[in-house]
Amino acid sequence: MTEVRTTRGEGEERIVDILVSPESHRDQQQDSVGTEESSKSLGTGRSLLPDAVSPTKCQIWAVMLLLGRLSVVILIGLAVQHKNDMDQVLLTLKNLTEQRDALLCQEDCPNTWDKFRCKCYRISTEWLSWNESREFCVSQGADLLVVDNKEEMDFISKATLYHDFCLGATDEAGEGMWRWVDGTVLPLDDPSWSRGGPVGGEDQNCLVRVSDPNQFKWADESCEEQNRGVCEQNVQK
Q1: Rounded distance, CA 146 to CA 232, Å?
Q2: CA-CA distance, 143 to 146, in Å (whole number)?
Q3: Judging by DSSP bridges, how do beta strands 13-18 and 206-210 pair with one another?
Q4: What is 115-129 written as a DSSP string?
Q5: 199 within 8 A of 187, measured Cβ to Cβ
Q6: Three-state DSSP class for 218?
Q7: Could you give the CA distance from residue 75 to residue 77 in angstroms, rounded to a whole number?
Q8: Angle at CA of residue 63, ends 62 and 66, nearest 5°
Q9: Residue 126 phi/psi, 5° resolution?
Q10: How far apart are CA 229 and CA 126, in angstroms?
Q11: Residue 1 confidence (pLDDT)
């Protein structure tokens, strides 16, 4: 039994007796116990669920490695494509430059000189040493031939089909350091070497074109060897 005291109005006091039966009290205890057990059961049920599977370090590194390799492949592909595009641009630019030069180079070459694109060429009629050939070219306002490209090589080769002649390259300034007379380097692995590269020693320091009706090749030879020389000069624009 529970006693509750309440007041209603001023000075009025009422006592209300609330009777609680033993059965009701027992039911409330059972409900409370059932609720606690249910809560425990729910908690136990949650704990029995499997945890989320986390990736291992090995799996993470494998994914990172795969992504890294994929990035490298993509970069290589872009670089190759870029190189191909650049090669095409350079080739187009070269062709346009040659066309421009052909239009600008309207001047004719002097008598006894042959014209090819924007250059004039003269082959000496005398057989001279390499240094004498160069002196002759310089006296004509020119210099010994510096080969710039295959087309020029083919043109000179046809004009001097059966003769050796001096070219404008030497390694006299430093053994094995071949340079054209304009200062540019002549690579030792250039495919135009007739024997795969220079083979002479300190006594073969000058470049000559060797006789070969089928291809244009050059070789190192003694600078005292007597040959004809090919002079070149630019066309006046």
Answers
A1: 8
A2: 8
A3: unpaired
A4: EETTEEEEE-SS-B-
A5: no
A6: strand
A7: 5
A8: 85
A9: -100, 155
A10: 8
A11: 46
Between the CA of residue 133 and those of 164, 206, 235, what are the distances in Å?
13, 11, 21
Residue 193 DSSP code: B
Per residue in 7-28, pLDDT (tens digit) is: 444 444 444 444 444 454 455 5
Q: Which residue has the tokens 């190192």?
A: 220
**Interacting residues of 98 by C-beta distance below 8 A, sequence separation 6+:** 117
Q: How far apart are CA 162 and CA 78, in angstroms?
A: 49
Q: Are 201 and 101 in contact (CB under 8 A)?
A: no
pLDDT of residue 94: 67
Q: Which residue has the tokens 């380097």?
A: 185
Per the listing, tokens 């042959």 go with: 114
Q: What is the pTM of this model?
A: 0.57
Cβ-proximal residues to 121 (8 Å cutoff; 6+ apart), any chain: 109, 113, 114, 115, 145, 155, 156, 159, 230, 231, 232
Beta bridge partners of 230: 123
Beta bridge partners of 179: 170, 185
- pLDDT at residue 214 in the model: 60
> Which regions in the chain score pLDDT beneath 70?
1-55, 94-95, 97-104, 161-162, 212-215, 236-237
